[in-house]
Design a protein that fits this description.
This protein is an alpha/beta fold and about 650 residues long. It has 24 helices and 14 strands. The protein starts with a helix and ends with a helix.
């Protein structure tokens, strides 16, 4: 039977139909109903129908309550900021805000207690939407059911600099425009005067400028974040680089993507080669100028100053820059310093992962290189080097040596995978995460309690889909024959060699949800005892753990263990057992995830996050698996990318800690 709710959902509600519905019952406009149990306004917001939203908000028959809640106390603005398609999201949100929607309305506790701003930060990550909500009074200090506010979410999502009100954003933009003009002048001076002394002075000035203007700032009292630039347009000579003069007589090169723009800023002493580089002739017969080892010339200013030409727009405190050392090759291959080129430092933009802590911008670049190596391996030997660095950084030396056959095979498989035109997870960051993940044996503990059969679609059905995707990711570049393990809280299944999503689906298909949620008990008896403790003294004379473990736990409810803290207690016990056997704490790491909207599960995960003594080996996702699956089910490549980030977060925590 036709109803106003489903017509609003489908986008075919008309003014005449609206008049008919409200004439029969005026309360229907604010009452949840239809197949999705939504108010008409919430349904239109969810599906992204701006014409229906405007019709409902401005109709002359019966105006709706713009904050009328649907299930879980979710307002129309909640649905617009979380589920609305991006092409109409901002238009609909603005219409709701103009109509007086409560910008700080929270969903109920069982639903996570999210505000529209939290949705914009954690789900859509729409910067303009974040700004719009803040400008209309959204508070970033409200906490959700897990005690997390929008500021903490922004930190985890790399959106720290977006939680500024309009006045603060305008002030930063004005500052950036001034810096743009200054830097443009600086580059012209550098291009005009081919002098080490002049460049040295300018380098020092620009570094001081970057500090005084706040481009290099202190964050949280212990981390220094290099503020980034959002490059809106590439302009002539924008790629001009401040390479430092060598200590010998060879010519100094400035590379650029527009020869004429650079040449016009120089005298006749400059010539442009066919490669787009401008070379100085004036220094050919000059005495070499010495460079002190401690000179500022050996450390360039932040590259965001170098690239700050007119026409570019600064967006401060976005994903940080990481440091990569490269070699400057002289134009003259026969130069006497061809084999003695100095290393210069180049800042490159990097997209930080979903949850990350900005590392300290130390003068010792090796810290950043170790944690955020931006190299893009191609050959197997390149991957072997990258994997060896991961082994060192993760403290896995007891498991893998430099010539380990497993490392060599992972490197070979990574090379082939990267060259596969049909592969999806092939960005440098994805490949790095895949190689990290391949060093660990993935074990999944699935909740098969009775409540997993609840929901629409059933939680169990969604979990089967997600776990199968996890299997495909975890086995993507592992050596042939390497298997993934799955265990269940209640079902006792024999050991299975799961090497593919099809294998996983067959195992999951034999299990039916039933009984309770004794997660802690199942973790110890079904995973830690057979896979960890039985390989260590006094249970094993050899005392050798075969592989490091990543234990991924998926649950829909609060544990029914007695005591309730048994899961946490067993994680602590595992850490102590490893340390007594001379293994690093990170030899076994844990990832706990919620599926479904159970209030007890959300509270339980919040309690786990607060356990600082195990925070280095335990990661509890802030996102529900069923929600992310619903969000990405039309694009499984995006779901795989999110799951890869999820699985590797506890591994990355080892490095960060």
């Amino acid at each position: 039977m036709a109803n106003i709710h489903d017509e609003a959902w489908r986008g075919n509600l008309t003014a005449n139909r609206l008049k008919d519905y409200t004439k029969l019952d005026s309360s229907v406009i604010d009452t949840p109903g239809g197949r999705k149990s939504l108010t008409p306004l919430a349904a239109a917001c969810y599906r992204g129908h701006p014409n229906i939203v405007q019709l409902l908000l401005n109709n002359p028959y019966c105006l709706p309550d713009v904050d009328a809640p649907s299930l879980h106390n979710r307002s129309p603005l909640f649905y617009a900021t979380r589920y609305c398609p991006p092409q109409s999201r901002r238009l609909i949100v603005r219409a709701l805000l103009d109509a007086g929607a409560d910008v700080n309305a929270c969903s109920d506790f069982a639903d996570g207690g999210y505000t529209p701003l939290m949705n914009a930060v954690a789900y859509t990550r729409d910067k303009e939407l974040i700004h719009m909500l803040l400008d209309h009074g959204a508070s970033p200090f409200i906490k959700n059911s897990n005690g997390i506010d929008s500021i903490q979410m922004a930190d985890e999502c790399g959106l720290q600099g977006e939680l500024l009100v309009r006045g603060e954003r305008d002030a930063e933009l004005k500052q950036s425009e001034v810096i743009n003009a200054i830097v443009a002048s600086v580059l012209l001076i550098i291009a005009y005067f081919d002098s080490v002394t002049v460049r040295g002075v300018i380098v020092g000035v620009t570094r001081k400028l970057s500090q005084d203007c706040g481009l290099l700032e202190q964050a949280d009292g212990k981390h220094r974040e290099l503020k980034s630039i959002k490059q809106e347009q590439v302009l002539p000579a924008q790629n001009a680089s401040m390479y430092h003069t060598c200590c010998c007589h060879c010519r100094t090169s400035y590379t650029g993507n527009n020869r004429d723009a650079i040449q016009h800023g120089r005298t006749s002493s400059m010539n442009v080669d066919n490669q787009g580089s401008v070379n100085s002739d004036s220094s050919a017969d000059a005495e070499p100028e010495s460079l002190d080892a401690s000179s500022d010339l050996l450390t360039p200013p932040p590259q965001d100053l170098v690239h700050g030409l007119q026409g570019m727009t600064y967006r401060t405190r976005e994903p940080f820059y990481k440091v990569q050392e490269t070699v400057h090759t002289p134009q003259d291959s026969e130069s006497i310093c061809a084999s003695q080129d100095q290393l210069h430092t180049q800042y490159e933009r990097v997209n930080t992962p979903d949850i990350d802590v900005v590392p300290h911008a130390s003068e010792n670049t090796s810290i950043l290189l170790a944690e955020n190596d931006s190299s893009d391996p191609v050959a197997p030997e390149d991957f072997e080097t990258s994997i060896a660095n991961n082994v060192d950084n993760l403290g896995l030396g007891k498991f893998y040596t430099n010539d380990s056959p497993i490392v060599q095979e992972i490197a070979r498989k990574a090379t082939l995978y990267r060259q596969d035109p049909t592969a999806t997870l092939t960005s440098p960051e994805d490949i790095k995460r895949l190689t990290m993940l391949s060093l660990f044996r993935t074990v999944i503990l699935c909740d098969d309690s009775k409540s997993m059969s609840w929901g629409t679609p059933k939680r169990w059905t969604v979990m089967r889909q997600v776990v199968s995707r996890i299997c495909g990711i975890a086995t993507r570049i592992v050596p042939d024959g390497t298997s993934l393990d799955v265990r269940f809280i209640n079902a006792n299944t024999p050991a299975n060699r799961i090497c593919s999503p099809d294998d996983m689906e067959r195992v999951l298909g034999r299990v039916t949800p039933s009984n309770g949620t004794q997660i802690g008990r199942a973790l110890e008896r079904k995973i830690l005892e057979p896979l960890v403790y039985n390989h260590l003294p006094p249970n094993s004379d050899a005392g050798t753990l075969p592989q490091p473990l990543l234990i991924c736990i998926i649950t829909d409810g609060s544990p029914s263990d007695n005591p309730r803290s048994l899961l946490k207690d067993n994680i602590v016990k595992c850490i102590r057992t490893l340390e007594q056997a001379q293994y690093k704490r990170g030899s076994v790491v844990f990832c706990v995830n919620q599926i479904g909207d159970d209030e007890g599960a959300a509270k339980f995960l919040g309690e786990l996050r607060s356990q600082h003594d195990i925070a280095d080996v335990l990661y509890c996702s802030h996102h529900r698996l069923d929600v992310k699956y619903e969000e990405f089910k039309e694009n499984m490549a995006l779901l795989d990318k999110w799951l890869l980030e999820l699985l590797t977060e506890p591994i990355r925590n080892i490095v960060n800690s």
